[in-house]
């Protein structure tokens, strides 16, 4: 087992982790960024970002590539590994990875983000990757002129549905409640598009297929309990996020949804451990707020290291 000792380790390489890395590197903390199993985070699977200051319109993957290049140029070192276990009960802090490496550090920033939730219904596991996806930008082109279903009513669902209109005119959104929850501009874009149909108060209960690909879904109206079967060549899930906090659940205080609890802005329940981005944010889930909290965590970590003479 390889052992490495660092002043600061940042776990995660999305907007929060990379911003924290840029600030920490400028402070000569020589940060190591452990990238995780999805380098770049959720923006690697999005289309155009239109609300990032300074870029009127930029592809999510391009934005993250720019941020990674910036962080590397500032002096960040990257490790293509994922954390499997940590010990934050004593100092130095210790972290273990999926590549059988052990790291220790004086301070740590957790920026592991969040992952897409699943439906957990019959057929989902069997047909995952066989017509079921969480990434419209990745897979929409496979469904040219096909019938597709988007599940969800938030910004991600609206973005997915809008992006799919580039490839098909047969789009249906399934929403659990009687209204959309997306921001008003995103709702307007969808509601004014004649190619997008919305079915409210409904949930997907079964996913059907022909052994190799999905063919249909069964939905149930939550008010009338009426069932109906819809043809579906593709099923795009946009039903929320689960914080990627499992490796820390016995080491840090989490809320009932699994988000890391914070005090004094970015501090966690463990001394010298800070958190930023979606793993500690149950409300906003925006790239810009994640980046901002990454900046805050880096500044707090720097202050901690100075005051503890690390």
What does this structure look like?
The protein has 310 residues and is of the alpha/beta class. Helix content is 24%, strand content 29%. The protein contains seven helices and 19 strands. The chain has helices at residues 15-26, 60-74, 124-127, 136-139, 155-164, 184-191, 287-307, and strands at 2-11, 32-34, 48-49, 58-59, 77-79, 83-87, 93-97, 101-110, 114-116, 132-133, 147-151, 170-174, 196-199, 202-209, 214-221, 227-231, 234-237, 241-243, 273-275. Strands 1, 2, 5, 6, 7, 8 and 19 form a seven-stranded mixed sheet that branches. A five-stranded parallel sheet has the order 10-17-11-12-13, with helices on one face. α1 runs parallel beside α7 (287-307) and α5 runs parallel beside α6. The model has no long low-confidence stretch (mean pLDDT 94).
Summarize the structure.
The protein has 310 residues and is of the alpha/beta class. Helices cover 24% and strands 29% of the residues.
CATH class of the largest domain: Alpha Beta
Overall, the morphology is elongated
C-alpha end-to-end distance? 25 Å
Radius of gyration from the alpha-carbon trace, in angstroms: 21 Å
Structural class: alpha/beta
Q: Which oligomeric form is depicted? A: single chain
Beta-strand segment tally: 19
Low-pLDDT runs of 5+ residues are none
The CATH topology annotation of the largest domain reads as FAD/NAD(P)-binding domain
- Count of discrete alpha- or pi-helical segments spanning 4 or more residues: 7
């Amino acid at each position: 087992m390889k052992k490495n000792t660092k002043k600061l380790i940042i776990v995660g390489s999305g907007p929060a982790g990379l911003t924290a890395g840029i600030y920490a590197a400028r402070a000569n903390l020589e940060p190591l960024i452990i990238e995780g199993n999805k380098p770049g985070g959720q923006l690697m699977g999005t289309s155009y970002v239109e609300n990032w200051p300074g870029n009127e319109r930029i592809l999510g993957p391009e934005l993250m590539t720019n941020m990674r290049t910036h962080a590397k140029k500032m002096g960040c070192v990257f490790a293509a590994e994922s954390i499997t276990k940590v010990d934050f009960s004593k100092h130095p802090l210790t972290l273990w990875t999926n590549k059988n490496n052990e790291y220790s550090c004086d301070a740590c920033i957790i920026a592991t983000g969040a992952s897409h939730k699943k439906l957990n219904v019959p057929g989902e596991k069997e047909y995952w990757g066989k017509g079921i996806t969480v990434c419209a930008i990745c897979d929409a082109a496979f469904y040219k002129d096909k019938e597709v279903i988007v599940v969800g009513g938030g910004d991600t669902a609206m973005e997915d549905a809008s992006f799919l209109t580039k490839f098909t005119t047969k789009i249906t959104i399934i929403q659990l409640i009687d209204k959309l929850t997306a921001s008003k501009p995103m709702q307007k874009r969808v509601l004014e598009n004649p190619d997008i149909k919305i079915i409210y108060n409904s949930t997907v209960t079964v996913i059907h297929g022909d052994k190799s690909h999905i063919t249909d879904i069964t939905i149930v109206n939550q008010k009338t309990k009426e069932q109906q079967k819809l043809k579906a060549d593709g099923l795009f899930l946009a039903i929320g996020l689960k914080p990627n906090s499992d490796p820390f659940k016995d080491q840090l205080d989490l809320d009932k949804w699994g988000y890391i609890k914070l005090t004094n802005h970015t501090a966690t329940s463990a001394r010298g451990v800070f958190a930023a981005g979606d793993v500690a944010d149950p409300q906003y889930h925006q790239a810009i707020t994640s980046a901002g909290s990454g900046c805050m965590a880096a500044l707090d970590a720097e202050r901690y290291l100075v005051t503890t003479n690390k």
